[in-house]
Design a protein that fits this description.
The chain has nine helices and ten strands. α1 packs across α6 and α3 (about 90-95) packs across α4 (about 95-105). The two termini are about 35 Å apart. The strands form two sheets. An eight-stranded mixed β-sheet has the order 2-1-3-4-8-7-10-9, with helices on both faces. It has a two-stranded antiparallel sheet with strand order 5-6. It has about 280 residues and is α/β, with parallel strands linked by helices. α8 links the parallel β9 and β10. The chain has one domain: Rossmann fold (3-Layer(aba) Sandwich), CATH 3.40.50.970. Bound molecules: iron/sulfur cluster (SF4) and magnesium ion. Magnesium ion binds near residues 89, 90 and 121.
Length: about 280
């Protein structure tokens, strides 16, 4: 891949929040010391999903809403890879929401960066499942991935960053990568990443973010307290950010992983399996 593919310049609008996410991801990967050929980024559909075109890692563009099962398979096949799924709120919270629920439930060891801009940017600004964040007067509620994850008690890492706070974002991505790479499980990091063209939420989110990392005595290992803190902050019309929850049981990994299985001497068995599918 590195020999045949040259990363392309981003196609995002000037000022798009995704530039901040990409910059923080590159910085966090550099700090992690993982060689570029040991990283694979699997992307969902939408403006955010083009992130994998811009980087020199391995990359894969999944079907709409299907980035999580694709990343799960990748992480199980070769747990030594640093697997990162990346996508938007339309991809992950609408068509892909069912997969998000089951990924929390299964806790596979990879990182998911969900860039939330409360709109469908690529298709010109329709309401996404998080649009009520921008229109709080509406009767619908925004889908909240952090509360959803907290409610599924096998989740192990839940955080929210903001592309307008790059230093914190680098720290959170680093912590997420570390969580997944050490085999503890699914690191879910939602990033508030404004779409400046159709829904410029920078002024609104600059004022709304409320960082649990700055709250004295906040314990990210306490799921019940995390739930209470998020509800309290949201009740004030603000958006909780920071490392919200980290804990729970480590991921279960296949032993051996399919990528390491010994296939030598099993060619006949393999051919027989393939032949069984011939018509
Ligand atoms: Fe970013 Fe919005 Fe432009 Fe898409 S349409 S690149 S989300 S600013
Ligand atoms: Mg979106």
């Amino acid at each position: 891949m590195t020999a045949t593919y040259t990363p392309r310049p981003a196609i995002w609008c000037a000022g798009c929040g995704h530039f901040g996410v990409q910059g923080a991801l590159v910085q966090a990967l550099r700090e992690s010391g993982v060689p570029v050929e040991r990283v694979i980024i699997l992307a969902g559909i939408g403006c955010s999903g083009t992130i994998q075109n811009n980087l020199g890692t391995y990359g894969y563009h999944a079907l709409h809403g299907r980035v999580l099962p694709t990343a799960t398979g990748t992480a199980l096949a070769d747990p030594s890879l640093t697997v990162i799924a990346a996508g938007g709120d339309g991809d992950g919270y609408a068509i892909g929401a069912g997969h998000l629920v089951h990924t929390f439930r299964r806790n596979p060891a990879f990182t998911y960066l969900l860039m939330n801009n409360a709109t469908y940017g690529l298709t010109k600004g329709q309401d996404s499942p998080t649009a009520p964040l921008v229109h709080p007067d509406r009767r619908e509620q925004a889908l909240d991935g952090i509360l959803l994850g907290l409610a599924i008690t096998t989740s192990t890492f839940l955080a929210r960053g903001y592309s307008g706070r790059p230093e914190q974002l680098v720290r959170l991505i680093g912590a997420a990568l570390d969580h997944a790479r050490s085999g503890r499980g699914f690191a879910f990091l939602e990033v508030l990443s404004p779409c400046v063209t159709y829904q410029d939420t920078y002024p609104m989110w600059d004022a709304a973010v409320s960082d649990v990392d700055e709250v004295a005595g906040y314990d990210p290992g306490d799921r019940t307290a995390a739930f209470g803190a998020c509800l309290r902050v949201m009740g004030e019309g603000r958006i909780p950010t920071g490392l919200i929850y980290r804990g729970g049981r480590p991921a279960s990994l296949p032993d051996p992983a399919p990528a390491r299985a010994v296939v030598e001497g099993r060619a006949d068995e393999y051919r027989e399996t393939l032949n069984a599918y011939r018509v």
